[in-house]
Inverse folding.
């Protein structure tokens, strides 16, 4: 099931131009394109340069890939229980910065994975994300993890 929620962020103080878009997709590779398409539409609407849109699309793809179970692995929904088989992508947009939160099942991804095994897919993905955005953080929460990416404009 894919869901989308588009609305201004009512919790933001004194930022009338802030927009928040939330997209929920299954943890399957074929649905990552929806996150990229949403970002492209939002970026074009906001007047972002094509290079910035391309960088953010790659960062979102890599972030989603960290939550997608690879063939031969145990599916995420079987590892951690019901509802864990989804990825939630939240775009928080202001005129001077984009914050993109990607939340999915905790499969052990950590920022320090870049140095633990530099050839793992996860390590390469995190390294790519760090090169494309200004800030990256990971916040575990029970059986979920949120990967936060900030791009200042």
């Amino acid at each position: 099931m894919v869901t989308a929620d588009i609305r201004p962020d009512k919790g933001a103080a004194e930022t009338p131009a802030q927009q928040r878009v939330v997209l929920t997709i299954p943890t399957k590779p074929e649905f990552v394109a929806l996150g990229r398409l949403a970002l492209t539409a939002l970026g074009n609407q906001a007047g972002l340069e094509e290079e910035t849109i391309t960088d953010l699309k790659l960062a979102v793809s890599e972030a989603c890939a960290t939550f997608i179970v690879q063939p031969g692995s145990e599916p995420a929904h079987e590892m951690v229980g019901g509802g864990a088989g989804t990825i939630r992508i939240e775009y928080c947009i202001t005129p001077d910065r984009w914050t993109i939160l990607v939340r999915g099942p905790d499969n052990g991804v950590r920022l320090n994975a870049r140095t633990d095994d530099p050839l793992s897919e996860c390590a390469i993905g995190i390294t790519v994300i760090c090169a494309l955005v200004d800030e990256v953080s990971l916040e575990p929460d029970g059986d979920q993890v949120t990967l936060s990416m900030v791009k200042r404009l």
The longest strand covers residues 86-94.
